[in-house]
Each structure stands twice: as C-alpha cells, then as structure tokens.
Amino acid sequence: MTIAEKLYPPSVAPNPKKPSGRRRVRSRKRIGLAAWQLGTALLIAAVWTLVYESGLLSRELVPPLWDVAREFVTLAGTAAFWAALATTVSNALTGLAAGIVVGVPFGLLLGISQAAYRSAQFLIELGRSFPVIALLPVMVLVLGATSQMEIVVVFSGVLWPILVQTIYGARRIDPVIADTVRGYRIPPLLRFVKVVLPNAAPFAATGVRIAASASILIAIGVEVLSLTPGMGGNLARAQTDGAPALALAYVVYAGLVGLAMNKILWTVEGRALAWNRRATRSEP
Amino acid sequence: MTTAEHLDLLDERRARHPLAVKGLSKSYGEGSTAVRVLEDLDVRVEPNEIVCIVGPSGVGKTTLLRCLAGLLAPTTGAVMFGPTTMTGPILEVGVVFQDYSRSLLPWMRTRENVSFPLQGKGMRKAARRALADQCLNAVGLPDAGRKYPWQLSGGMQQRAAIARALAYQSEVLLMDEPFASVDAQTRFDLEDLVLHLRKRLGISVVVVTHDIDEAVYLADRVVVLSGHPAHVVDVVEVPFGQDRDQIQTKAEPAFTEARARILGRIRR
Question: What is the CATH number of the domain that holds B231?
Fold first, then answer.
C-alpha cells in the first residue's frame, strides 16, 4: 500500500477518480501474489506426488493426488454429500448461534460488573482451557450419537471465545474515553448503549469469527469420533472402508466450509462495523 | 473567521464564576510510600480570563488540571467553582484532552460526538443537533458534522473536541497540552481560535502547556509551577488584552520580557 492510499482509503479519497497508474501497480501486485499462491500449491502437489511415487509411506494410506481430485469432483454430484454437508453446517451454526445468544449478553454483564467478573473468573479460565472433545464420551452416553449431542458439544466449545472476547471488549475502554465520559457526566444507561456496546462490538465480532471456524472443526470432530451423521461421519466411514482418497476429499471440503464461513463473517463484520475497519485499518 | 452569526445559542456561555484551588495538595499512594506531587497551591481563574500553567515536564501540571476538572480529588485543600466546592466533574467546566484522537468516539460521526454529552443532560434531539452544528461552526468546522473522526485531520479533531466542550455549556474550558501533537501552522490557528472564542463567548480558559511562547501568547496570566513537590514559583501578568496577533504580539518587547522571566523561573 502506498502512503497516499493509507492516508486516503478509497471511499474517502478526496479525488474519486483514481489515477490509472496506481491501479496498474495494484493489479500487478495482485497478479504477483496469485503467482506465489499458485506456486505454493504446485509445490505441495509436487511433494505429495513425490512421496506417493517414492513409496515412502504405504500406497494404501497415501492415495495419488489425482484420485483425491476425482473423488472431490464426484462427491459434488451426489445427494448424500450435500445432505451430509447441510447436516454438519446446520449443527455447527445452531451451536454457534446458541454460543452467541449466551456468550454476548453474559460477556457484557461480566464486562461491566467488576464483582461478577471476579466471581466468574476462575470458571471462565477453566472453561476456556477445557478440551471440549473430552466431554464427548459423557455426551454420547447421555444424549447418544445425535445431532442434539453434536450441537451441545459445539456450543460448549464456541461459547468461550465469544464470552472471553466480549468481556475483554466491554472492559477495555480507552482511559481517555473513560475520562471523557466521566468528565461529561454521561449517565450509566447512555454510557452502556453509546460507549460500552460499540466499544465491545469489534471484540465480540472477532470472538464470533474465531468461534465460527471452531464450530465447523468441532462439529466435524464430533462426527468423526462418534460416527454421528454428517461430513465427519462420512469421512470416518470412508477411512474405515479403506477409501483414503474419498476421506481426503471430505477433508478438503471441510476446510473449504471453514474458509467460506470466515470470509462471510469478515464481510458482514466489515459492513456492520465499518467505522472500526476504517479507524484501525485492519486486514484479514 | 465569520462565525458571529452562528453563535446565538452560545451567548449564555459567558463565564460568571471564578474557578479556584485553595491550599491544594495532591499525593499519590499512601503512608510512607506516598509521593507528594502538588504542594499548597493557590490558583484563581477569573471569569473570561485565560490562565496558562507552565512548568517542566513531570512537574504535575496535568494532575492540577485533572483536579480542576473534578476528575481527581485533592488530598488536602479544595477546588471551588464560585461559592461551591467541587466534588466531581460539573457542567460548567469542560475538558479538552491532549489526545484528541482518542477522546472522540470512533464509532460516532462528528456531530454525534459533539451532541452526545447533551443527550445525557436530557436535551431533545432537534435542540442537540442545532447546538452541535452551531458549535462546529464556531470552531470553523461547518462541514464536518457527517464525517467520522478518522476522516478528519489532527487539527480538525481537536477543533471538534473544543466544539464538544462548548456545546456542553462549559463556561470554563480546561485544556491539557491541547496543541502538542499538531503541526506548527495548525497550532497557531487553534491558538487564535481559543482567543477568538474567549472574546466572542466570554468563557474562561485554562491551558496546560510546556510551550512558553504559547503560554505567553494566550494567557492573561501565566502560572509557573516548579519543584518536587510542585508549587507556584511565579505568576506572570501578560498585558496584551484580548486581541492578539501571531506576528505583532510576539514581536513586542513585553512578550520577550515575559518569556525570559518564565524561562528563568523554570530553569532555576
């Protein structure tokens, strides 16, 4: 980014007609970046093929890249795959939504009340460091290998980043802003609505983004381990059926789902909290 | 600056009461580890007066200003606004911080930044808006209301912070190193803005600064703090009246004299 671009981000540029020279430099940069990314992908493919051809690892375990690609394309044509994808994503999103509904209000409450924060601090420290997969055997015992069980486990995993980030955002008010608010005797309710909430919003949004990626990971993890229906269940079955190429194709799809989720949330967040993206010039 | 026609709502800002500290001392910490920062200060700001507080950095100028604002409680002594003792921030005393970039709320447009303290006072929306626009006009920002703080330059942000203090019906403006982080030309403009607002609105202003030229240019009286704990080592009267000029005033022999005297007091 040139200095002029830093000073005048596109939407506030004093001159709406950008000089074409800069655009050319930018598109050249973008092509350069794409070349690097393509190069990295090719390198990985080359290493993979080399490992396969050398027979370093059993050919039963490492399928040729081409097989994975073929399974990847074939999968997209089957109804079972799309049903599995829908199940996994809907379970993950339901758990995530529950995490937001519980995490954000509690985070705000704990953020503004020092007493509440102190009394809950230990529980939060414990909760966030607790490996959620360890809950799985108990949950399977209580709820069975069902979608409900999966949602509960996703919820107990994604609650923490949302809660912790929201608490942090509600507590971390710039001292100059705190002085300003005090100096102008802003009453508590107005302070909460106009200062604490908007201040916490970008932090909570970051928590939600972290949680969204985690929700897909946890959902698939639960499915793999408990053979609950969904992408993870299919993946685990493909593995036990001795179809590693199919299993790997599922892995690639799982990664793409997580990536898409993050991208969508990043865009939504940019729209809703434009002031923050602009004021801090953050990049994804 | 053609702002006179926009100031009808601001006329009642005229300062009526002196702001004074009496026998003020301030210590941080307690018991044997307490550090005394300010020792037995007496400073009085008359209505419509500009007082500058100067002193070496770290002497406690900001502590004194925060006490004047009601943001810090004095250890002994009192801060008086007219006949009443201040126990916290009051309507009539507004603060403009050095760090303007952080004191404006980044999620609000400039007009909302200026008007939102008025919401806390229960003012209606239309009145808030009108007053905010008038104050933005008064500080020379008639077109900035719809912009976000990050779309404004440093000098413009500081003007917006001054507008917010004016809108809040402050009779006394307290400014903590207000122009320390803007470029020289902007600083001169803002100094002249302060002089203009004082004359036009009749407000009183207290400016904490480490810049002696700025202090002499702005002030009717310069209070010099020095020592540990800090005490008032000198009070210098500056005889230039309300109308000043960046070039002529600074060329006056009285300017050089006041400047030399203050510098001498701080160095010693």
Answer: 3.40.50.300
**Residue A59 falls within a domain, yes or no?**
no
Q: Same domain, yes or no, for A17 and A152?
A: no
Does B113 have pLDDT greater than 60?
Answer: yes
Tens-digit pLDDT profile for chain A (284 aa)?
Answer: 444 444 434 444 344 444 455 666 677 778 888 888 889 888 988 888 888 888 777 777 778 888 888 888 988 888 889 999 999 999 999 999 999 999 999 999 998 888 888 888 888 888 888 888 888 888 888 888 888 999 999 999 999 999 999 999 998 888 888 888 888 888 888 889 999 999 999 999 999 999 998 999 999 999 998 888 889 988 888 888 888 888 889 989 988 998 888 888 888 888 888 787 766 654 44
- pLDDT of res. A165: 93
Q: Which of A20, A35, A54 is the last residue of a domain?
A: A54
Q: Which of A174, A177, A184 sits opposite B120 (nearest CB)?
A: A184
Let me know whether A193 and A97 are in one domain: yes
A112 and A11 housed in the same domain = no
Task: Say if residue A132 is in the same domain as residue A22.
Answer: no
Nearest-neighbour CA in chain A from B177: distance (Å): 14
CB-nearest partner of B89 from A12, A183, A199: A183
User: Which residues numbered 155-194 in B keep a CB inside 8 Å of some CB on A?
Assistant: 164, 168
Question: How close, in Å, is residue B241 to chain A by CA atoms?
Answer: 30
The range of the structural domain enclosing residue B33 comes to: 4-267
Express each pLDDT in A74-92 by its tens digit.
Answer: 888 888 899 999 999 999 9
Domain range for A15 is 3-54
pLDDT at A14: 42
Kindly indicate whether the ipTM for this predicted assembly is greater than 0.85, answering yes or no: no
Interface check A182 vs B, CB under 8 A: yes
In a domain, A60, yes or no: no
Name which of B68, B107, B147 to mutate to probe chain A: the one with the most chain A Cβ atoms within 10 A of its Cβ.
B107
A179 touches chain B (CB under 8 A): yes
Inside any domain, residue A234: yes
pLDDT of residue A164: 92
A73 in the same domain as A29: no
| A43 and A83 fall within a common domain | no
As for how many domains chain B has, the answer is 1
One-character DSSP codes across chain A: --HHHHHS-GGG-SSSS--HHHHHHHHHHHHHHHHHHHHHHHHHHHHHHHHHHHTSS-TTTS--HHHHHHHHHHHTT-HHHHHHHHHHHHHHHHHHHHHHHHHHHHHHHHHH-HHHHHHHHHHHHHHHHS-GGGGHHHHHHHH-SSHHHHHHHHHHHHHHHHHHHHHHHHH---HHHHHHHHHTT--HHHHIIIIIHHHHHHHHHHHHHHHHHHHHHHHHHHHHHH--TTHHHHHHHHHHTT-HHHHHHHHHHHHHHHHHHHHHHHHHHHHHTHHHHHHHT---
Query: How many domains is chain A built from?
Result: 2
| Residues A31, A98 share a domain | no
Looking at the fold, whether A80 and A12 belong to one and the same domain comes out as no
